[in-house]
Amino acid sequence: MSTFLEDHDTAPWSVLHSLSPEDEAAMAAMRAIVEPNKGKLQGTAARVPFDAIMERVIAPSGVIYEADHVGGVSGWWCRPEDARPGQAVMHMHGGWFNWGSAQSFRHLAGHIAASAGVAAFVPGYRLAPEHPFPAAAEDVRACYLGLTRRGFSKVAITGDSAGGNLALGLLVHLTANGGADSKALVGGVVLSPVTDLTLSGESWSTRAVADPYFNQLQATELVRSYLHGHEPADPSASPLYANLNSLAPIRVHVGDDEVLLDDSVNLVERGVAAGVDARLDVWQGMVHGFLGGVGRLSASNEALKLISEFLIDRFTD
């Protein structure tokens, strides 16, 4: 039995979603394709194949894409036809701080934008190893300030994987520093976030076989490239160790078959203990980045629905 099922299945802050037979069959077929390449995405050479994977996310209907610079950071707008004015989602893309681009994640962010009824901007933050920590964090802060300078009075922060790390870091930064700009913040949603760069979560062992994508040796090198000698337990790099008091409401979604499972479990557990309005949704049989299966997997569709309900509630509060 998994660590999550043993320790957290009755926690009031967590919900465990069962795996449908249809999704189980689809995931088995996917695993047969990707598992032979487990752990093989390495260094900057992985950027092209990684972006190609993300380009496979089904494009949402009724979303217009536009390249732009916000706060001096390049990126892509994802604009639903009926987007409410004055409100925006800022989505930080994944890629272990070394890969990924705003362009390749535009469809994923577009689904979040369309379901929430607001425009989303995906910043193309600087990547390691060319630009190690804290370059990416500096870029997302500048981008958020750029949105508020453009008159967006309500901004939700979302992010997946490494982008989830940056999203949580931004939430912590805004909480700690306050100021007029932080008043626009309505909440955050993170998907399989990397919260602990010490890679000390038990799921690195308990999910080592179940996870079809990553292994600890691969992640260790990617984190080393990003931190460039910086202390991995520094709260500014690892949100798990940050002061979470007074953090804006957050929702966390993660697959049960991820080596990063405990990064989510431990973050939400700490957040709730600090009085944060936080909830964890764990999806059985799902792997890292499963929201990218929207339109194909019922779990992805259901997760998107929960995300949109939370965001709409925060925007209209």
Q: What is the distance, rounded to the nearest whole angstrom, between the alpha carbons of the first and last residues?
A: 40 Å
Name the quaternary structure.
Answer: single chain
Give the CATH architecture: 3-Layer(aba) Sandwich
Radius of gyration over C-alpha positions, nearest whole angstrom: 18 Å
Question: Low-confidence runs (pLDDT<50, min 5 residues)?
Answer: none
Shape: globular
CATH-defined superfamily: Alpha/Beta hydrolase fold, catalytic domain
Q: How much strand content do the residues show?
A: 15-25%
Query: Which CATH class is shown?
Result: Alpha Beta
Structural domains: how many:
1
Count the DSSP helices. 10
How much helix is in the residues?
25-40%
On the 0 to 100 scale, the average pLDDT is 96
SSE string: HEHHEEEHEHEHEHHEHEH
The largest sheet, given as strand count, sense and whether it forms a barrel, is:
9 strands, mixed
Strand order of the largest sheet: 1-9-8-7-6-4-5-3-2
CATH topology group:
Rossmann fold
Helix/strand-derived class?
alpha/beta
